[in-house]
Amino acid sequence: MGGSKSRPAATAGGPRVVATNSPSVAQAAASSLTGGHACWTVPRKDVTGIAIAWGGASSLATADLPSEYRVFALGDGATCPGGPGLYMTAPCPPLLLVAAEPGEVNALKHLAVASGCHPAVATELICDWIKSMLPKRCKLECLDDVRACGLDLSQLQQLAL
Fold first, then answer.
1. CA–CA separation, 161 vs 155, rounded Å?
2. Which of 29, 65, 69, 129 sits at a 20 to 30 Å CA gap from 110?
3. Can you point out the beta strands (E) in 6-135?
């Protein structure tokens, strides 16, 4: 380490740029209706109770989730003390639950929206979350849930397969 070959040589036009001041994907995802998204995983044993408490309009309220599925909670980063980002434990009340089957392409299998959450806010949160995973892609396989929760399907289909 620290040898003469450890740094790239400057190009003829000057030093090589290795980083720019452009915003990160997470910063670019923050938008007008929310302060970006906060994301954390939810224990499988808690999912059904949360979905039923929200009104049970989603298939998540009755789904028997396979062990390989992961359930993510999304909240508004503006309401979290630490702001938007990835958390180990819940930093704020969840507004959205998404059950996904991880893989080369994440398959979004079920989703549920909190009863007090406006559909435009929920759509923006899930879009921000999908954008934050780029270049990894997501496949939207929960169209019935999207419709039942009143989310903007056309906006989601621009980001998901």
1. 12
2. 29
3. 37-41, 70-76, 85-86, 96-101, 105-113
Q: Which CA distances in Å does 8 have to 4, 5, 17?
A: 10, 7, 11
Q: Where are the beta strands (DSSP E) in the chain?
A: 37-41, 70-76, 85-86, 96-101, 105-113, 137-140
23 close to 122: Cβ distance less than 8 angstroms: no
Domain 35-159 has CATH 3.40.630: yes
The per-residue DSSP string of 5-18 comes to TSSPPPBTTBSPP-
- The amino acid at residue 88 is M
Query: What torsion, rounded to 10 degrees, do the Cα atoms 59, 85, 133, 16 define?
Result: 180
Burial of 93 (0-12, 13-18, 19+ CB in 10 A): middle
**26-40 pLDDT, tens digit each:** 444 445 666 788 999
Are 115 and 54 spatial neighbours (Cβ–Cβ below 8 Å)?
yes
**What residue type is assigned to position 101 of the chain?**
E
